[in-house]
Amino acid sequence: MRTPLIAGNWKMNGLPDEAEALLTALKAAEKGRADMLVCPPATVLFEAQAILTGTHIEWGAQNVYPAEKGAYTGEISPAMLSALGCTYAICGHSERRQLLGETDEFIRRKVAALLEAHLTPILCVGETADERAAGKTEAVIRRELEEGLAGLTPRGSDIVIAYEPVWAIGSGAAATAEDAEAVCGFIRRVLSEMLGEDADNVRILYGGSVTSANISDLLAEADIDGALVGGASLKAAEFISIYDKAKA
Ligand code: PGA
């Protein structure tokens, strides 16, 4: 079935010496029946490649620009990420949607460019607190999925969806396993409208204040296949503990 995926999203954290210490410490994690991924800032992907090559840990990017090359000052292409050994890239994180105004259409182009380059997109979707209070959670998730994947026909195993309720990110108040499963199950139903039975091969992660204390309950749910971990991924022992619980 689906192998659990524990992915660390470092966000804008990790100077080279900090990255080296954290990546080196992660190497102590023993491989089990779960995959581990780290998404550090682009400035230390080279270090990730140097330190993690030959281990079971994969590394990926937090962002990508949807073009092969050219006049896109400051941006990084899928091929550049591949050249650094990346296998995944996050797209559509709510921080980029909110702070940088990324639209569903722009995110769709990133997903397409990543698939084209044989990188696995981790497409993030999630409602704000106001949207949830207004009963719009499913409508928001459906729109982000349908527009983020519009016109694309990926194999289920070639994409990852991260359900990240915006109100749970960095708040210390994760969704309950039950609430997270309600939305992750809905995500799989929407995916099955798009991909048919292959939706069963898509890994759906939960993200938002995941810790070693709540990961087991989350992973016990049928449609939660892993976690996208922010703050807790910056502490090696905590991230390894989350991974250990996922592989158990
Ligand atoms: P958090 O962040 O674990 O710090 O809540 C998750 C994310 O934004 O991916």
Description:
The chain contains ten helices and eight strands. It is globular. The protein has an eight-stranded parallel beta barrel with strand order 1-2-3-4-5-6-7-8, surrounded by five helices. The chain has helices spanning 16-26, 45-52, 78-83, 94-99, 104-116, 129-133, 137-148, 177-195, 215-219, 236-247; strands at residues 5-9, 35-39, 58-61, 88-91, 120-125, 160-163, 203-207, 226-229. The protein starts with a strand and ends with a helix. The longest helix is centred in the C-terminal third of the chain and has 19 residues, at 177-195. Helix 1 links the parallel strand 1 and strand 2 (35-39). Helix 1 packs parallel to helix 2 and helix 1 packs parallel to helix 10 (236-247). The model has no long low-confidence stretch (mean pLDDT 98). With 248 residues, the chain is of the alpha/beta class. 2-phosphoglycolic acid (PGA) binds at residues 9, 164, 169-170, 207-210, 228-232.
Give the SSE map:
Elements: E1 5-9, H1 16-26, E2 35-39, H2 45-52, E3 58-61, H3 78-83, E4 88-91, H4 94-99, H5 104-116, E5 120-125, H6 129-133, H7 137-148, E6 160-163, H8 177-195, E7 203-207, H9 215-219, E8 226-229, H10 236-247
The structure holds 2-phosphoglycolic acid.
2-phosphoglycolic acid binds at residues 9, 164, 169-170, 207-210, 228-232.
